[in-house]
Q: What sequence folds into this?
RNA sequence: GGUCGCGUAGCUCAAUUGGUUAGAGCACCGCCCUGUCACGGCGGGGGUUGCGAGUUCGAGCCUCGUCGCGACCGCCA
């Protein structure tokens, strides 16, 4: 025990009454009554009320917010009627006999207990922001989760192995951060988007079970749940099948939820196919808590006199609909907004029906016959006050349009108080049987849906040449409350299969495939074991556990939406000497000079 | 790159149809106060309304531009 503290500020209870204690911390608030001063003393763990008598401790009058002080005193019970039930330490207080100001503080630029402060300011003074109880709690919970992950995976026989941060550019995926090499002028490293290739090489190396809390870097535009650097729980195993991954990760999630928030996750988790997810929710990461499933009416409208629907069906498309329960009150403005959203998602327009005032109000209902109306009423369980929305297109675009509207409408209904997402519900499930390959209309070639190392499902292998988009991959995503928590796959371990995909399916020129992935294919040729793995987004996972809106709230020093650190002022210019050493010239300087 | 929203005191916000000297709470400074916990009372300081143009007799408010921040779309194998 050192001279600063005998206890922390959330520790003392009635049972400590009479003890002489020393506490150190920050002045959270001060209530100066002239002849008596109360201070809420805060440290990482919590608050304790200090009572100071300014007659013996005159410095008590000079205390201000965020001063760092040390207090000696006696734990006393609070007088009758002054107990504060909001504080865990609210039954006691410290009668100070000694006050030392360890450090003064500038007036804080914003009140630390204020909820809705400009995020700029919070980020600029992040060290103050992190003093707030909520942020301190988030950091603690994140630590608890990391510790649980390490303990669990250690028990399961995993080795924590670090992989390089200075890696090589592999422009197949996300845009990368580049790092110039002074020793090799004109050449660049790239920061890894993920340790994907290294973890596969570790399997070839016989590591068998690898994991890492891996920092990953992507130079893409940011979102509330996207940072330029973020952390993945990255792992890979040899001699395993998909079922082994499911079992392992389910156990891990169960343990994390138990140790961090004492919530029981029931196992095994449900599995749905990509096909089912799209069909029922129009997305591969559905938030099933919202209800509002999509239904198919292709058969109903096959021969409809409503030509818009009938012609889509004739062209091999589908007619899908969803019931936005209780949203018949949607204003014209809201309908217009939904139509815009639908168009942005690729629809040509938006057909809708309002069940209102005992009748159906809709621009299209006049084309429907009784059988069609009956099918809709039954299939969508239409009741007074409902809003029905349609999408007619090829299967996937039709699903996606309604999937997007479903989320927009859920947001609107929540604002109106007509839809409440239940709290404390954690809807985990696996999404499986993803298509291995999709056709990218922009690049005019087939692309890997996940990444190019994903193994096909063996029975689909024969389709690879003729109908590549029908091949399913041994890929799996774990979804929680509409958030993609992570994903992974069984990898290709035969070099000839990997080569075939690169060169014949993805049409990556031989030389490029060689320089980009040659070492990996070569490694696979030296007895690579069957292997697979998964990566979980740690920031998102912790954010959900904390109930945080943004992953910025669970990262100690995050960047803003422009990828800047407002506290340190990075990124920043560098000395021209540094650039010369790297043999780098920037266009910006040339532009400024001209 | 695009769409939308926001920008007024240190912080959170207000300011009627475009109308006099831009207000309030908290914070800050001074004085008073022995049971507060959002302590209270009295007094005080604090503003280039993000910036720049324009319209107008007159702009925090309208228009254009610009900068900053945020959300979303694109992007994120």
A:
């Amino acid at each position: 025990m050192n001279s600063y503290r005998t206890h922390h500020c959330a520790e003392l209870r009635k049972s400590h009454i009479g003890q002489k204690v020393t506490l150190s911390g920050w002045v959270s608030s001060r209530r100066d009554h002239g002849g008596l001063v109360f201070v809420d003393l805060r440290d990482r763990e919590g608050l304790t009320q200090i009572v100071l008598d300014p007659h013996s401790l005159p410095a008590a009058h000079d205390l201000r917010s965020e001063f760092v002080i040390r207090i000696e005193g006696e734990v006393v019970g609070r007088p009758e009627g002054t107990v504060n039930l909001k504080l865990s330490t609210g039954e006691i207080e410290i009668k100070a006999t000694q006050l030392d100001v360890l450090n003064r503080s500038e007036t804080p630029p914003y009140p630390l207990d204020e909820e809705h402060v400009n995020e700029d300011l919070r980020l600029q003074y992040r060290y103050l922001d992190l003093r707030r109880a909520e942020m301190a709690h988030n950091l603690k919970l994140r630590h608890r989760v990391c510790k649980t992950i390490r303990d669990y995976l250690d028990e399961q026989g995993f080795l924590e192995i670090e992989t390089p941060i200075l890696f090589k550019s592999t422009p197949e995926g996300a845009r990368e951060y580049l790092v110039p090499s002074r020793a090799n002028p004109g050449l660049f490293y790239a920061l890894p988007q993920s340790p994907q290739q290294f973890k596969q090489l570790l399997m070839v190396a016989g590591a068998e079970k690898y994991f890492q809390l891996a920092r990953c870097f992507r130079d893409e535009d940011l979102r509330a749940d996207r940072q330029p650097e973020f952390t993945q729980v990255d792992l890979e195993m040899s001699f395993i099948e998909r079922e082994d991954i499911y079992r392992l990760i389910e156990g891990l999630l169960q343990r994390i939820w138990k140790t961090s928030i004492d919530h029981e996750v029931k196992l095994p988790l449900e599995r749905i196919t990509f096909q089912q997810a799209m069909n029922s929710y129009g997305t591969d990461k559905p938030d099933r808590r919202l209800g509002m499933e999509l239904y198919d009416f292709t058969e109903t409208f096959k021969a409809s006199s409503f030509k818009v629907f009938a012609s889509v069906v004739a062209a091999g498309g589908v007619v899908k609909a969803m019931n936005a329960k209780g949203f018949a009150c949607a204003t014209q403005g809201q309908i217009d907004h939904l139509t815009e959203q639908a168009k942005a998602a690729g629809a040509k327009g938006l057909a809708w029906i309002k069940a209102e005032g005992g009748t159906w109000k809709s621009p299209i209902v006049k084309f429907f016959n009784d059988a069609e109306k009956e099918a809709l009423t039954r299939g969508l369980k239409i009741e007074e006050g409902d809003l029905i929305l349609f999408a007619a297109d090829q299967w996937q675009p039709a699903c996606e349009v309604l999937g997007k509207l479903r989320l927009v409408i859920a947001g609107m209904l929540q604002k109106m108080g007509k839809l409440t997402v239940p709290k404390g519900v954690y809807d985990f499930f696996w999404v499986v049987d993803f298509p291995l390959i999709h056709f990218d209309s922009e690049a005019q070639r087939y692309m890997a849906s996940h990444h190019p190392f994903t193994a096909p499902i063996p029975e689909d292998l024969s389709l690879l040449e003729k109908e590549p988009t029908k091949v399913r991959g041994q890929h799996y995503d774990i979804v929680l409350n509409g958030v993609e928590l992570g994903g992974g796959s069984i990898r290709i371990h035969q070099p000839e299969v990997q080569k075939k995909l690169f060169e014949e399916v993805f049409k990556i020129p031989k030389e490029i495939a060689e320089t980009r992935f040659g070492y990996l294919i070569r490694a696979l040729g030296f007895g690579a074991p069957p292997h697979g793995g998964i990566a979980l987004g740690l920031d998102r996972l912790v954010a959900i556990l904390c109930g945080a809106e943004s992953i910025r709230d669970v990262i100690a020093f995050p960047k803003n939406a422009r990828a800047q650190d407002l506290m340190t002022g990075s990124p920043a210019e560098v000395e021209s000497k540094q650039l010369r050493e790297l043999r780098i010239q920037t266009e910006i300087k040339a532009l400024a000079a001209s």
